[in-house]
Amino acid sequence: MTTDASSHDTHWSPRLWGTLVVLCAAMFLDALDVSMVGVALPSIGTDLHLSTSTLQWVVSGYVLGYGGLLLLGGRAADLLGRRQVFLIALGVFAAASLLGGLVDDGALLIGARFIKGVSAAFTAPAGLSIITTTFAEGPARNRALSIYTTCGASGFSLGLVLSGLLTSAGWRWTFLMPVPVALLALALAVRLLPRQARPERGSAGYDVAGAVTGTGALLLLVFTVTEAQGAGWTSLRTLGSLAVVAVLAAAFLVIESRTAHPLVRLGIFRNGGVSRANLTAMTIFGSYAGFQFVVTLYLQRLLGWSALEMAFALLPAGALVALSATRMGAIIDRFGTTRLLPIGVLALAAGYALFLRLDEHSGYLGLVLPSMVLLGVGFALAFPSVNIAATNGVADEEQGLASGLVNTAFQVGSAIVLAVTTAVITGGSGGGQSPQAQLDGYRPALLLVTGVALVGLVVTLVGAALSRRRPAEPVAVPDYRYPSAPADTAVEVLSER
Predict the structure, then answer these.
(1) Which domain holds residue 58?
(2) 3-state helix, strand, coil in the chain (%, to 5)
(3) Which of 86, 183, 231, 375 could be a cystine partner for 317, CB 3.0 to 4.6 Å?
(4) Which among 171, 157, 213, 152 is positioned nearest to 383, based on CA atoms?
């Protein structure tokens, strides 16, 4: 294992810090773009004369490109070189952001959003795998990943606030603002990102059939769950699409089990920590996406808050995540991901459950603030931990794959839970707009997202129980720990040094 920072390094060089800052900037922009457009949607619809069904594709187009192509992006990083893939994708992201801010046609705007999603599907796994191959597994990697992932969580949370501010000046600024940041990050990345030996194409191979079936299955799944609300969950179109997804997924598994150089080596799922981390990632991001949707509707439609008031109401959660960035690495080193993940997911579930007390006259201090504090604590603990758990114990040549898998889990979980949440709200309210009808839709939706979070809690508790039952292996340094990684991996890494 070749890294630029050993596991015990506490003082990094300016160049190493610069590398991490560049990667954090890209992750921040990716996460920012997921949440920032939401507040601007009404203004976009009015200005471009878009119907509600068309307007949803301004959001769904990004999710479709991002969630559908993440696995391919992770594998491309492993095969083509992480640095090269990151630089190209970040340049495309900047160009698509500029296009989105200048167009006057709804179809072009949706197309620009799709391209941005595709570029993010390549920058996210490439950036994460650059970190996991630059910083040695253990305290150094945990520190880097905690900073990196909290930047992503902060971008997602603070995107709502920035969107509220920028939309006041004009919705186009929500698209144009990332352009100079992306260009600056790109210029710094060319100078700072470590150059790695170009992968040997002859030894790697390209799994074209696996790429077509796997990517096709993910794209169609995200598309189907996004459109199911309009077409109907039991409609022939939805059921037929899900059947095609099942066929493509089955074909993908058969291909991956037989090809010499698979897009996804199925054996990676034999690592229980990786599998559980991906399941947990789906529940974390899925439950939060559904919760944010409910809260946005509740605060703006029922309580009549402005977009900016709502954005500042959600600020405490993002602020807690951002402020914890510099300390989470040390906390993870001390307690381990198997302990912190259940606590983080429990805090998220408790925050959702507290919001069940909503009524027609709920106040900020009594209802919103307690949930935001719990969500901030939960994300600060769970988001870095689940990313570390999803990449620990994975060989360098498969870090792009592991990174792509966990990011795919985030996006697919978000798309599925959000679609189901929307259906529950519509079914519960019966289409009525009275305060009571709206509450009848919001409460079961909140029960749903709380239940999704509790599923994630069960998965993390199983992982913690299995970790306690696993016998400890002797290592070269008695006080050293590799959270969520098999003991033999720790011995191997220490022996290599």
Answers:
(1) 14-206+261-496
(2) 80, 0, 20
(3) 375
(4) 152
